[in-house]
Amino acid sequence: MFSKAALLALSYAAIIVTTVFGQQVGTNTAETHPSLPWTKCTRSGGCTTQSGKVTLDANWRWLHSTEDPNTNCYTGNTWNATLCPDPTTCAANCALDGADYAGTYGITISGNALTLKFVTNSQQKNVGSRVYLMASDTEYEMFKLLNQELAFDVDVSNLPCGLNGALYFSQMDADGGMSRFPTNKAGAKYGTGYCDSQCPRDIKFINGQANSAGWSPSSSDPNAGTGQYGSCCNEMDVWEANNRAAAFTAHPCTVTQQTICEGDSACGSTPTNRYASVCDPDGCDFNSFRMGNKLFYGAGLTVDTTKKFTVVTQFITDDGTDTGTLSEIRRFYVQDGKVIQNSRVNVPGMSSSLDSITTDFCTQQKSVFGDTNSFQDKGGLAGISKGMADGMVLVLSVWDDHAANMLWLDGDYPTDADPSAPGVARGTCGTTSGTPAYVETSAANAFVVFSNIRFGELDSTYIPIPIPTGNPVPTNTPPATIPTKYGQW
Ligand SMILES: *[C@@H]1O[C@H](CO)[C@@H](O)[C@H](O)[C@H]1NC(C)=O
């Protein structure tokens, strides 16, 4: 994520004060996590279905007085000062409530396919959402990525410039922080404990305390604001994309669990102290367009974004074991029965053999693009590897960007830089595209579909049938030319 401070667009909180709906739902909504089955795979044993569920992040939820559900603790983008005079009292006075996933938030699941709708108008307008995969109703599923691979299908055809349908991992606590912070009574069940490499300060509860102190309502987002505290942790962006651009990005931190930060400097919140937090906010990213292949990803291109495709990501370790250190993040795609190798780097000054995230790739990229190498400073691949060893939470979201209009993903960024300079052009979206005001009206019906999530040993997930014993086991890298049909090798 580049600037998730901007992503929040909770509007449920306001619902209760509107007369009709508010009085009808004066009591708490039961929290029923929608089921999202996924599969775990091994090379020898094939794949078995896991009965996962998802939960909505706490920030999107209705937050009200424990004594009187008709009194909001948070309305629009401000806290009730009586209920929330300070973070501790606020945490004691305020309750998160259950969610109407489909009706209020546009989150629906059919079979193994999760659809996240961008704007949902019920009694109020909701923009975007963020959900986590759960192992049970009270714990997040913890993924240990080292020496494993992840595959999923995605449909970005209805995600235009300025939107981001994201699938990524954050090193959150499995219980949402309940055991480390006993004043957090809601836990993973209610989607608490979020953190990422931006050390976001728009999070309403961090470490069992409200983030209400020094809260500053956003000037552009009617539902968001920023508090004194942020929540930092390792983040592996497997997929951040719309139908124009896509990136995968590793963001290491020097901390190996969710960690609170306080203030602009420690949270790296302003341009002058962007690199002062414990995390790397830029990350080392692979965006095919930015890396010089402008005909790889998009409508009608090699990876054709007008229809569904499979994204496969491999987390290779230096010694080829689950206990090794992350040395490479490989990517390929499967579409129309064909495996598509990731694009190769085509940037003057960089090696053209590069097609994955490695230390060499990151070092060359930062140098040639003239970017600050915060990635290296915060530990590089070995740094994020520690987070991966402990396990990370799978996050799925759709969002728009109040800070930079998503141009860091899909346009020329920084917008005032020469677009022909290396690293500036990231996609075909215009520099005036992607404003929340525009996309929330013009693309209100946009959505992303993530389906068929598979996780397991290298080369186990994207082949839908088990490999019969006696056949050669494919190497980590698929053969250069793969004319065979999906499922026939
Ligand atoms: C804030 O909370 C107090 C205490 O519950 C309540 O009396 C008051 O009406 C609330 N204010 C708003 C604007 O909801």
Automatic annotation (TrEMBL):
<dbReference type="InterPro" id="IPR037019">
    <property type="entry name" value="Glyco_hydro_7_sf"/>
</dbReference>
<keyword id="KW-0136">Cellulose degradation</keyword>
<dbReference type="GO" id="GO:0030245">
    <property type="term" value="P:cellulose catabolic process"/>
</dbReference>
<dbReference type="Pfam" id="PF00840">
    <property type="entry name" value="Glyco_hydro_7"/>
</dbReference>
<keyword id="KW-0732">Signal</keyword>
<protein>
    <recommendedName>
        <fullName>Glucanase</fullName>
        <ecNumber>3.2.1.-</ecNumber>
    </recommendedName>
</protein>
<keyword id="KW-0119">Carbohydrate metabolism</keyword>
<dbReference type="InterPro" id="IPR013320">
    <property type="entry name" value="ConA-like_dom_sf"/>
</dbReference>
<dbReference type="InterPro" id="IPR001722">
    <property type="entry name" value="Glyco_hydro_7"/>
</dbReference>
<keyword id="KW-0326">Glycosidase</keyword>
<comment type="similarity">
    <text>Belongs to the glycosyl hydrolase 7 (cellulase C) family.</text>
</comment>
<keyword id="KW-0624">Polysaccharide degradation</keyword>
<keyword id="KW-0378">Hydrolase</keyword>
<feature type="signal peptide">
    <location>
        <begin position="1"/>
        <end position="22"/>
    </location>
</feature>
<dbReference type="GO" id="GO:0016162">
    <property type="term" value="F:cellulose 1,4-beta-cellobiosidase activity"/>
</dbReference>
